[in-house]
Structure formats: structure tokens, C-alpha cells
Design brief:
This protein is of the alpha/beta class.
Length: 860
């Protein structure tokens, strides 16, 4: 290895690495370290914090020498014994990272960037979330499939890509979406259907799209949101909920003419509008040929690419090409089986690899269910074959990973698999090494981490099913599910505190936790089945906060299920947390229950504050009590908790905490009818939302409403017009509809009927979709009154008030009440009391379909 030009020693912790002398000192005393280990340490320490791939390390530490990868692992292990385990981090499937802090005043320069340093992927679409990986795995041998799929989706809006597990449906679809990102007004979106509960299906899709659906049922909210969109949506992994996915696709296809849907599934949806695109195995050469010719076939190209990822020295030659062709033929060109085989090539060598596959696959295939489809038998055989080569520890870890739903972080996997009081269970480093081996063997796949951070790890569905079979055979499923629930409870307990400490933005926190929602659902079920109430409540508290808006019905149902568990035996900190989350979950739809939960939270918080001086929990509970009273129209009982809360508030707290006080203060100002105070708090809420990294569009809509309440219609119109312009063309139809409602009200307050009419015409279809035609109709009544159409105004008022009564909603917001009073006064003055009453009663019998003709005609 070439010695670096810079000769300054590298100091980290109590170690000193002397380049020129090739010595490693600990507390000033030399310690013995092997030559290759020294070279490896120098390469890593020269690149602190950088990810260095295994291939790059082997090129730099063993230049020009053919070595096996286990040599690298052995040197890393030797260094960890000398330095401790924390200085060299393994990123399974990717490489190593030096974690020490280099104290040298002049870090070495001139070495050039490591060839393994992770390059940034393509910039993500600034407007629309795609949920696609930043760096896609290369798509080999599928150019014709990609072109054919492109043609099919251009002419048909519902296409199902059908094929067996492991054949590459998902990767093909991801590349297809990536290529078409700029072809649709609202972009493309990838939605993984990893949920097992059909009730969560629509909400999961809405969450992937980043939609806000208000308080409607998830399916109706999703339909309403996507109806005006022009975009491409991919639904991955549909076969386990095929009937429910089929129905979802049917209604979306019928409701949203600008929506193109691509589904990946092992079976078709069986819909009349569906076009099926069957994906075949990768083509395998039919006879012996040169290496150059063979690599033109997708199966061989994939084998070579995967083998090179494991062994940088692998090359396809004319002499070994026939063997590679036979290997690809042995697994029927199935991509995942090719990857499994290629991962073994460096260790076994091609001839031995082929021999073992021919013998083992034949036995395994004929020994299983002969009625299973051929590709499924091939995949099972390939998994059995690859599993047979694993060490006992790796086999144990693979089967235990089967309890993970979706993906998991390395931290969570180590929590799950390391159990110090169980003999023979590996420690954290052994888990890390085994996970790395499983990634290298294509049994575990990597996914991009949260906001570009550490990767996550998952089993493909076919591999997970196999792992769970093995777990059942070992009699470990129940115990591993309990451990999974326990590890998830620890993770979620820490995550709850993290949300409020200000170390992470709210939206970023939500994206981070979204990856573990499926794990949380499974863990909840396991904790409930085993009677672990405290674990169940710990998980539920964080899940209640982490569930995205489109899954609000799931949040409310979870809150309902948790309430009976909150007995006096639950510790005060957890009880306070849970009552706070129940109050938040019920706040919009069950306000009396929200108040009762807030009062229970306050009882727990006061007891907790006496013991631990926990000011924020007390503050939070007081905010909820004040706000819940105010939302019930009770400003007097809200006054005392509001004043106490304001005395406790620390202006240095992060925005995630201060937001609750500002929100409560605004609710109380609304209840008191103090318009100026409402505006003040609305502006503060927008600023706090910005500071906590949250979407501010809903807050800006509330600000428009508040400015109008305060009598500043011009400011409301300016703010509303800006917000409508910003939301136009996005996926956020619900937020846009609310913004249009408030803007229409502002224009009417200014007697600007031309702009109010234009906004009202755009608003009405959205109001019907999002289930608030009663609100839109009352502003359309005022529009008719101002346009000197008193008969239409009286009828529209009758419809609006009857529709409101049918919903059993007694309270109206101040702007709504003001619009009704003004429209009523104008119409009654023009018509007289009796005629107004007759037309008002006539309007009460109208349907939604009658409204637009009446509202936007010139008669009346």
C-alpha cells in the first residue's frame, strides 16, 4: 500500500496513529497491530465519517491481490478487539465507517475522494413525494419490458404487472415510475401495501400520496383527493389483499379520469378495465456462446453484476460463460434465485456452485408440493439451497428476522436479536456481522434510510414467508413475537420523548416513524395477546401521534381500544401520556370525550409534577383542558387552565411544545369572540409550524379565517389568494378546498362578487367531494343576495341550514354565522318575511345536485 503523502499523526480518543513509523499508540504506549490491520485502519481513519465500501477497502488494502472477503472481516474484527467496538461501524451490505473524531489540526489532504463515498442520488421532486429510492438497483435485461409497459400505460389507466415472487415486478415498476416523473401534472407515487388489515388500505395509500382528507372516512377522502389529479400511482405487493385492492382500484379508476394506476401482484385483479402485463423470467442463452454474447442476455448480465458486487475480481470469460449459463438455467432465469446463486460464487467457485445447485435443487424441487406453480417451486428450492449454506447463527438470525413487518433499522434489529440472558444468543457485533452476510447473500435487502440516513433492512415477502416457516419449525414464533413487541416498545418510548425535545422536526419525525407503523401494529397485537398492558400502552401512545392524517379513523379506533386499559395500576407518566394522546385523538370529532380525557391527563400530570417537577406534562395537559372547554363553547371554564398554562410556559422550549399553548389560546379567543386575539395566535401558530418543520398550509388557511373574523377582509383576501395559488396543481385538494372556502368568504365580505363567483364555481365540486356542501352553500347564498337574486339566496339558505341540521351540528363558526345573517337580511328585505319563509322551506327540500344551477344562474 502506498504511504499517504501527509505524515501528521492521527489522534482519536486515547489513540495515536503514526503514519511514518507505522505505529499505533494507546495512551502513549505502542500496541501490536498487524500490517494489513494497520493499513485498513489508516484507510478508514483518513476518511472519518465516510462510508467506504468493501470493494474499495479491498482495492486499497490489498492492491492487485485476489483475496476473499472474509479476510476483510477478520481484519475489522482484529481492529475492534484493539480499539473497542465503537470506532469502526459496519453498514451491512454497504461497507464500513470510521466513527472516531480525528483531533489532528490538519487532516490529510490530496488522497482524493474514496471511490466508495456515497454519491448523492437524483434530486427528489421538490413538489411531490415519490417514495422511490434515491438510488435504484440497476435494471438488467428488462429494456423491452420497460418499453412495452410504457406503451400499455399510455393507452390504459389500470395495468397489473403479474408474476411470481422474486421475478422483479417491483424493480421494473420503480424504474418505470422514475422514468416518468415529469410526465404528469401531480407526478408519480410509489405505495407499498405492506398492511395486513384491509381497513387501513385506503389510508395507507393516502398517506403515501401525502394527502390530507379531513374527517371523512379514509376511502371517501382518498377518492375525493385523487379525483382531480393527473398522476401515476403504483401499488406494490397486492396479492395478500387482492379483493380489497381490486375494489380500491375499481373506484379510483372510475372516479379519477386523470389517474393512471400500476399494480404489482402475483395474481390479477380481475377487473374489466384492467390490462395484465405478465413479466417473464430473464432470458437465458439457449446454447454455448462467447462471454460477450452471453452477457447480452438479462439472466447472465444479472449474475455477473451480482457476482462482481460480492467479488470485485469476478469476470465473465469465454471459458466460464457456459457454466454461468447453466447456473442461470438451473434457476429458470428467476432474478431473486440468480442473485442468491451469484452471492455464493466467490466462495464455492463456479463448477462447485453449479454441481451443488443441480443436485440440491433437484432434490428440493421434487420433494415439495408438485402442485405448486413451477416458479414458486424454483424459488423455494433456491431459498432452501441458499439457507443450507448459512452458518447456524446466520440461519437463526434469518428466521428470527421473519417477525419484522416491512423493514427495520439496524438499531431495532440488534434490540430484537440480542438477549443477554439467553445462552448462545449473539451479541450486537455478531448480529451485525450475520446481517451483513445475509445482505451479501441477497437474503436481506437494503432500503434507503430516513432523510438519507442509515439504511433499513427487510426480507422480501417470499423470503419472509420462508423465514416464518422456519421460525414455526423451531418453535420460536411466539417468543420472538413477544421480543418484537418489547423491542418496539423501547423504540417507541424513546421516539415519543424525541418528538417533544425539539431535536427533530415534526414532519421529519413522522416520516421516520412511518417506516415502523407496520411493526407497531404487529407489536400491539402481540402485546395484547400476551397480556402485556404496559407494553401495549407504550406502543399505542407513540402510534397515536405517528399515524398520518389519512389514518385518523385508525387513530380514533386505537384510542377507543386503549381507554379501558387505563386503570389505576398504570404508572402516572404512562397514564398521563396516554390520556393526552386520547384527548388529542378525540379532539376534532368527540369533544366531550376529549375534555374528559384531558381532565384525566391533568390529574396524572399534577401527581407527576409533585413527584418529578415535570413542568411540560402539566403544561400540555392544561393546554388540552383549556382547548377542549373552548371548543365546546365554554370560555369561562377555560380561563383558569389557560392562565396556569401561560405561567408555566418557557419561551425557550422547542416549537413542538409551544404549539400546544398557542393552539389552546386561539381556541379560547375564538370562544370569546376576540377577533384580534384569534389573528395574533393564528400567526404564531403558522410561525411555530414553520419552526417545527411542519406543513403550514392548513395553518395559513386558518389565518385567513382569523383575519376575516377580526374584520380585516382585505388582508384575508390577500392571504387567501396567495394560499390558493400556492396549492393549485398540488395533490392537496382538501387543503385547497378549505382555502377556497375562506377566500370566497373574504371576497364576499369585500362585496367582490365577480371573484367570489369564480372561486365559488371552483369550490362547489370540491365541497361535495369533501363532504361540506352545507358550508359552501351558505356562502353561495350570500353571493346570490349580493348579486340581487334574493329568491335564490333564500332557497340556498334553506338548503344550507337543513343540511347542517341533518349533520346534528349546532355550532357555526363566526364567519359562517355572519354570512348567514347578512344573506338573510338582504333577501328578507327584498322578499318580505312570508315569501322568504316559503322559499327558505322550499330550499330545505333541495338536493346537492340542485345547488349549482341555482347558485350560478343569473335568474332569481
Amino acid at each position: 500500500m502506498t504511504t499517504p503523502v501527509a505524515m501528521a499523526p492521527l489522534r482519536f480518543g486515547h489513540f495515536e496513529l503514526q503514519r511514518h513509523e507505522r505505529r499505533l499508540l494507546a495512551d502513549g504506549q505502542p500496541i501490536e497491530v498487524g500490517g494489513r490491520a494497520f493499513d485498513l485502519l489508516l484507510v478508514l481513519a483518513d476518511r472519518p465519517g465516510q462510508l467506504v465500501s468493501k470493494r474499495a477497502l479491498m482495492d486499497l488494502v490489498w492492491p492487485g491481490v485476489v483475496v476473499e472477503e472474509n479476510n476483510l472481516a477478520a481484519q475489522v474484527s482484529a481492529l475492534r478487539k484493539l480499539l473497542g467496538g465503537d470506532l469502526i461501524a459496519t453498514i451491512p451490505g454497504r461497507g464500513y465507517r470510521f466513527m472516531g473524531r480525528i483531533a489532528s489540526p490538519e487532516p490529510p489532504t490530496g488522497q482524493g475522494a474514496s471511490p466508495s463515498a456515497t454519491a448523492p442520488g437524483p434530486a427528489s421532486d421538490a413538489s411531490f413525494a415519490t417514495n422511490l429510492p434515491a438510488d435504484l438497483t440497476p435494471l438488467l435485461g428488462r429494456a423491452d419490458d420497460l418499453a412495452e409497459l410504457n406503451t400499455l400505460v399510455e393507452t390504459h389507466r389500470l395495468v397489473t404487472i403479474v408474476g411470481p415472487g422474486g421475478i422483479g415486478k417491483s424493480l421494473l415498476t420503480q424504474h418505470f415510475l422514475h422514468a416518468r416523473r415529469g410526465r404528469y401534472a401531480q407526478g408519480v407515487c410509489w405505495a407499498e401495501l405492506s398492511v395486513t388489515d384491509a381497513a387501513s388500505l385506503a389510508g395507507t395509500v393516502a398517506s403515501a400520496l401525502g394527502l390530507h382528507g379531513g374527517g371523512m372516512a379514509p376511502l371517501r377522502a382518498l377518492i375525493a383527493a385523487v379525483t382531480p389529479l393527473r398522476m401515476l400511482l403504483a401499488l406494490d405487493n397486492a396479492e395478500h389483499l387482492i379483493d380489497d385492492v381490486s375494489e380500491l382500484c375499481r373506484v379510483l379508476h372510475e372516479s379519477a379520469p386523470g389517474l393512471h394506476i400500476v399494480v404489482t401482484s402475483q395474481v390479477p385483479l380481475r377487473l374489466p378495465a384492467e390490462r395484465i402485463f405478465r413479466i417473464d423470467p430473464l432470458p437465458v442463452p439457449g446454447s454455448e456462446m462467447s462471454a460477450a454474447q452471453a452477457q447480452q442476455f438479462g439472466a447472465v448480465a444479472l449474475f455477473v453484476e451480482r457476482a462482481r458486487a460480492v467479488d470485485r475480481h469476478f469476470a465473465l470469460t469465454d471459458s466460464n460463460a457456459p457454466t454461468v449459463i447453466e447456473i442461470c438455467r438451473a434457476v429458470d432465469g428467476l432474478p431473486v434465485a440468480i442473485e442468491l446463486a451469484a452471492a455464493r460464487a466467490p466462495m464455492l467457485g463456479l463448477p462447485r456452485l453449479l454441481a451443488s445447485m443441480h443436485d440440491r435443487l433437484q432434490v428440493l424441487t421434487t420433494g415439495r408440493n408438485r402442485d405448486a406453480p413451477e416458479r414458486q417451486r424454483t424459488l423455494r428450492a433456491a431459498l432452501e439451497w441458499s439457507h443450507g449454506f448459512l452458518e447456524a447463527r446466520e440461519q437463526r438470525i434469518l428466521r428470527r428476522l421473519g417477525v419484522i413487518a416491512g423493514s427495520a433499522s439496524l438499531e431495532f434489529i440488534q434490540r430484537l436479536l440480542v438477549e443477554t440472558d439467553e445462552p448462545g444468543v449473539p451479541d450486537a457485533w455478531a448480529v451485525l456481522d450475520a446481517l451483513d452476510a445475509l445482505v451479501e447473500r441477497s437474503l436481506v435487502t437494503t432500503l434507503p434510510g430516513h432523510d438519507g440516513g442509515a439504511p433499513r433492512y427487510r426480507l422480501l415477502e417470499s423470503t419472509r414467508a420462508y423465514a416464518l416457516e422456519r421460525l414455526d419449525e423451531a418453535g420460536e414464533r411466539e417468543s420472538m413475537q413477544r421480543r418484537h413487541a418489547s423491542a418496539l416498545a423501547e423504540l417507541f418510548d424513546a421516539a415519543y420523548a424525541e418528538y417533544f425535545d425539539g431535536s427533530i422536526g415534526a414532519e421529519s419525525w413522522m416520516r421516520k416513524l412511518a417506516a415502523d407503523i407496520d411493526n407497531a401494529r404487529d407489536a400491539l397485537a402481540a402485546a395484547r395477546a400476551s397480556g402485556e398492558v404496559l407494553e401495549e400502552l407504550t406502543i399505542a401512545a407513540t402510534l397515536l401521534r405517528a399515524l398520518p392524517r389519512p389514518l385518523n379513523s385508525e387513530r380514533v379506533a386505537l384510542a377507543d381500544a386503549c381507554e379501558p386499559l387505563l386503570t389505576r395500576s398504570v404508572p402516572a407518566p404512562l397514564a398521563a401520556r396516554m390520556w393526552i394522546e386520547l384527548s388529542s385523538a378525540w379532539g376534532d370529532t368527540r369533544r366531550s370525550r376529549a375534555l374528559a380525557a384531558a381532565q384525566r391527563a391533568l390529574e396524572c400530570a399534577r401527581a407527576l409534577d409533585r413527584e418529578q417537577d415535570d413542568g411540560f406534562t402539566l403544561y400540555h395537559a392544561l393546554c388540552l383542558v383549556a382547548g377542549a372547554n373552548a371548543r365546546l363553547g365554554r370560555p369561562e371554564p377555560a380561563a383558569a387552565p389557560l392562565a396556569e398554562m401561560q405561567q408555566l410556559e418557557d419561551p425557550e422550549w422547542p416549537a413542538q411544545r409551544l404549539l400546544w399553548g398557542a393552539q389552546a389560546a386561539q381556541f379560547v379567543a375564538h370562544a370569546r369572540g376576540d377577533g384580534a386575539d384569534v389573528v395574533k395566535h393564528a400567526r404564531r401558530l403558522v410561525e411555530l409550524d414553520r419552526r417545527r418543520g411542519n406543513d403550514v398550509s392548513l395553518g395559513l388557511g386558518n389565518l385567513v379565517d382569523a383575519e376575516l373574523v377580526a374584520g380585516n377582509a382585505e388582508a384575508a383576501a390577500r392571504s387567501g389568494a396567495a394560499l390558493v395559488a400556492a396549492l393549485h396543481g398540488t395533490r392537496h385538494g382538501f387543503t385547497l378546498a378549505l382555502a377556497r372556502l375562506n377566500l370566497c368568504a373574504a371576497y364576499l365580505a369585500l362585496d367582490d362578487t365577480a371573484n367570489a363567483r369564480a372561486i365559488g364555481q371552483a369550490l362547489w365540486p370540491q365541497a361535495v367531494f369533501f363532504d361540506y356542501p352545507h358550508l359552501a352553500a351558505l356562502y353561495l347564498a350570500l353571493l346570490a343576495a349580493l348579486e340581487k337574486r334574493p329568491r335564490a339566496a333564500a332557497q340556498l339558505l334553506g338548503y344550507a341550514e337543513a343540511a347542517q341540521g341533518a349533520r346534528h351540528e349546532d355550532q357555526r363558526a363566526p364567519n359562517e354565522s355572519a354570512a348567514i345573517a347578512r344573506a338573510r337580511a338582504i333577501a328578507m328585505q327584498a322578499l318580505g318575511e312570508n315569501e322568504f319563509a316559503r322559499l327558505h322551506a322550499e330550499g330545505a327540500r333541495l338536493s346537492k345536485a340542485d345547488v349549482p344551477g341555482l347558485a350560478f344562474s343569473n335568474a332569481g
